[in-house]
Amino acid sequence: MKIERAEVIVTSPNRNFVTLRLQTDDGLVGLGDATLNGRELAVVAYLKEHVVPLLLGTDASRIEDTWQFLYRGAYWRRGPVTMAAIAAVDMALWDIKGKAANMPVYQLLGGASRDGLMAYGHASGPDLPSLFDSIREHQEMGYRSIRVQTGVPGLRAIYGIAAQSALDGGEERYDHEPARRGAYPTQEDWDTRAYLRHLPTVFEAVRNEFGPSMPLLHDGHHRMTPIQAAKLGKALEPYDLFWLEDCTPAENQEALRLVRQHTTTPLAIGEVFNTIWDFQTLITEQLIDYVRAASTHFGGISPLKKVMDFAAQYQIKSGCHGPTDISPVGFAAQLHVGLAIHNFGIQEYMPHGARTNATFKQSMTFENGMLHPGDNPGLGVELDVDEAGKYPYEQAYLPFNRLADGTIHDW
Ligand code: CS2
Ligand code: MG
User: Fold this and answer.
1) 47-51, 248-252, 328-332: the lowest-pLDDT one
2) Could you tell me if 291 and 200 lie in one domain?
3) pLDDT tens digits, residue range 70-83?
4) Which residue from 77, 169, 194, 263 has the highest number of Cβ atoms inside 10 Å of its Cβ?
5) Nearest residue CA, atom 12 of ligand 1?
6) How far apart are CA 331 and CA 317, in angstroms?
7) Distance CA 144, CA 210 (A)
């Protein structure tokens, strides 16, 4: 079972995706996601110039050995470009192994530990009435757990709010497909003190309207200092959040000690992390409750399974990153892990657009708020190469933000 062909396919059906397609000499095809939102072509070059030539002729069954060769052999470890490239290879090899065994990947990871994966969706609105509408729409779609993002009085446009990005010339559904294409990122506003004053009043209103039981989540997008995050976590305690996400820029893992000492609001971190080392202090000191790593940016299925097994010893659960910039292939990869591990927590799920779903045919299902990767052999995703060819790459960037005095703030 030797790797005979390796292609890097870039397509932009509703937004940009980078997919590695491996083919073995016995005709098996494996897919891997290498999409790095806003920096896609750097990973394309890394794969095409430095990885594909090393793969041709090698044994497709040696997943762990290939991972170690690409990680250790490069000498320069870690980083989002490197780890997205390695992730694509790892996923494609698991896909091939599943097809060779005629089993879905979750069976190879130990089999199902549950019937399905609880998903959460993104509700947002610039004010309470539109936020409530958005929550109801998500409930109608089947979601039982909902992330709540809201406008802040005095700020014109902030991340995560559908109607505000439309004001800014963007699409109505923020961070959804299609992405905001263009040669320069959109500028948004930020004011942490205004946000800290406003957010608890929003959660109070949501609890009054929707009752105490629905799991509610919120993403702070790395914008607070440790003491601000501690204050917010404490202020949100009466509203019983499922989690507060990315409260600080957690490359400083020790900062979470201070946050943790002050609040019992559960914490989730890690969508921008690349390796298990980024979680070391957070896990061993039990400073978080949920690991947000995405298979695509974390080196693939193999390291995602390892970090979750490590986290399990500390009663920390999974909450994998699942926005639309994770391709259907990367999304399937983490569904297989989530179904197999004991310490699954929740899965973020933003549905892809129609053109993306026509380009990537998926066995995955979403019913009554629960996801399942399906039982097709491998990952359960087929890439329609002709369809992909219709949508060439288009430059697109994430927005960025400045404070009122013009200072650039954290994403
Ligand atoms: C967000 C993402 O899903 C999330 O929690 O933080 O939407 C994030 O902004 C994008 O994936 C960045 O590419
Ligand atoms: Mg996030």
Assistant:
1) 248-252
2) yes
3) 999 999 999 999 99
4) 263
5) 37
6) 18
7) 12
Q: Tell me, yes or no, whether 405 lies in a domain.
A: no
Residues 368 and 268 in one domain: yes
Number of domains in the chain: 2
* Minimum CA distance residue for ligand 1 atom 9: 175
Best mutation site among 16, 180, 321 for ligand 1, i.e. most ligand atoms within 8 A of its Cβ? 321
| pLDDT tens by residue, 109-145 | 999 999 999 999 999 999 999 999 999 999 999 999 9
State yes or no: pLDDT of 26 exceeds 90. yes
Query: Same domain for 286 and 309?
Result: yes
For residues 86, 87, 91 and 94, what is the CA-based torsion angle, rounded to 10 degrees?
A: 60
* Ligand 1 proximal residues by C-beta, below 6 Å: 37, 175, 219, 221, 271, 321, 323, 325, 348, 398
SS3 readout for 233-272: HHHHHHHCCCEEECCCCCCCCCHHHHHHHHCCCCEEECCC
Enumerate helices (H) and strands (E) in the chain, giving the number of each.
15, 17
Instruction: Cite the beta strand spans of 64-142 per DSSP E.
Output: 117-125
Mean pLDDT, the chain, integer: 95
Query: How does DSSP assign 339-365, residue by residue?
Result: HH-S----EE--PPPHHHHHHEEE--E
Let me know whether 122 and 62 are in one domain. no
Q: Whose CA is nearest to atom 7 of ligand 1?
A: 323
Residue 388 lies in a domain: no
Here the CATH number for the domain that contains residue 277 is 3.20.20.120
The residues annotated as belonging to the active site are 159, 221
Spatial separation of the C-alpha atoms in residues 301 and 329, rounded to whole Å: 11
Q: Summarize pLDDT for 86-99 with one digit per residue, the tens.
A: 999 999 999 999 99
Among 37, 120, 175, 326, which is best to mutate for testing ligand 1, by the most ligand atoms less than 8 A from CB? Answer: 175
CATH of the domain at 83: 3.30.390.10
Q: Which residue has 């397509």 as its token pair?
A: 11
Distance between CA 227 and CA 256 in Å, rounded?
A: 10
Range of the domain at 11: 3-104
CA 22–ligand 2 middle distance (angstroms) = 30
341 domain residue, yes or no: yes
Does one domain contain both 311 and 267? Answer: yes
* Domain membership flag for residue 167: yes
Task: Specify the pLDDT at position 186.
Answer: 87
Ligand 1 atom closest to Cα of residue 245: 5
Q: Separation of 323 CA from ligand 1 center, angstroms?
A: 6
Is the predicted pLDDT of residue 296 greater than 70, yes or no? yes
